[in-house]
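step: validate -> pass
step: tokenize input -> pass
step: predict -> running
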Amino acid sequence: MARSVEKTAKTVEEAIELALTELGLDQEDVDVEILDSGAKAVLGIVGGRDAVVRVTESISPIRRVTEFLDLLLESSKDSDDSDIKFYIREEEEDGQTVIKADISGTDVAYLIGKHGDTLYAINTLAGVVANKDGGDYVRVHIDVADYRKHREQTLISMANRAASKAAKFKKPVPMAAMPASERRIIHTALQGNTRVITESEGEEPNRYVVVKPKPYVKVF
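step: predict -> pass
step: emit ->
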């Protein structure tokens, strides 16, 4: 839950400054609601009223992910001269905001792990961090040394081979269990294939894609 404080001072600006100091945040990281703009006393004696504001923490998802990756990489590097770095940005895909981060460096294999397990775990945690305050869901896509880019090419090839096999032998072809992000690639790769359909089956973490031949329909 986002932190929020109310502060009273002679002016709105002073009240906001008091709130920022207590929260330890900069103004770009908060939402400000002016509850009372205050009033000057008549002749400096009668009717004066202090300003009141409510200041609520509102750190953007991309900043949260940036801070998460900064902390992760700083705590996991094995020397002060490590060259590991990342490039992060927001993109729009199918009307949805996606935070993308590309991590690079000389020795980053430990951030990928066996079959990408570590990378996908990092991605999951970053997604939780990005969306912890609710609001519109933001998808996070983290890649390390182009692992996911190359993996996508491999998955597309696997999908096409499974589709050819399913269409040729008229039997479903189950693929290996894989995370949701990889299953999505399989579904997308074959969604325009006129000979097969794809369905996800099983339970996490062993959920997998089955490529099935489309039923033959005789046209009279």
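step: describe -> DSSP finds five helices and nine strands in the chain.
step: cleanup -> pass
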